Amino acid sequence: MSQQPQTQKWQMIAVLALPPLFWAGNFIVARAARDLVPPLSLVWGRWLIALIVLAPFAARHVRRDWQSYWRYPWLVLGTSVTSVIAFNTLIYWGLHYTQATNGMLLNSTIPVLVMLIGALVFRQRLRLWQAAGLALSLVGVAVVIMGGDPQRLAQLAFNKGDLLIFAAMVAWAFYTLWLTRLPAEISRVGLLAVQIVIGLVVLTPFWLWDLSLGHQPVLVPQAAFAVLFVGIVPSLGAFLLYMQAVKLAGSGRASQAIHLIPLYGVILSTLFLGESLHLYHLAGFALILGGILLAARSPKPAQPMVQGAK
Q: Is 164 a domain residue?
């Protein structure tokens, strides 16, 4: 075997395996820093750092596509609010009340939520296998949210953190569906920069108000590391590697690699957070993944998941 194919093989493995690892790290670091950096401060700091790093690379794309943004103002605004603001704020808020493991398991529901919202809101056709897979995955979601205890359903005693994170996944599903309506010729690098700017403009008054209420970061090195990590590694590193994965392996294989997030998450949360893996975690993930695989039997090709704003 020549050296070049071998190098390309390892390059493909790296670009497929690293983005979900970086996104899993986002949950781990946010959970670990929950008592050091309030959710709004973590979101605001994350995207400010990401914008500073991204701006030199995105500037030419923004200049080129500026008129295109104005042709689709509501889609640009909607994708900004659902990804940069809602998705991340709800996740960081939810991780104050639930384990990172739960958050990453619920992250796996995005494909079925895209199908459900696409059918209910955007009138997309839901095929038989997709409907069956959707139902199976939602049962898995219920298992995770109920913590394996059916009595919680009767008492409506759900974990607030799980519900917040599930709401974040709903926001990401809307983001995905709206993003597919933006023309492919609009650079996603430039679009991400514009989304971050819009997100920061909207977030800033809420962040300042949150600070005035006394929800201020603890000025220690661990807090600074948390903000720097989420601002660079999952925000930009994973995004750039994921784009390369789509280029080398195709959107199908690249999106399937996202299911490595719970696997990485279980390992990392056990090692760094001391979280325990319970039987209901395994059962919930098996049902969610089974539903995704069942829905994939539909002959209609799935829309690729764009994961850049995580």
A: yes
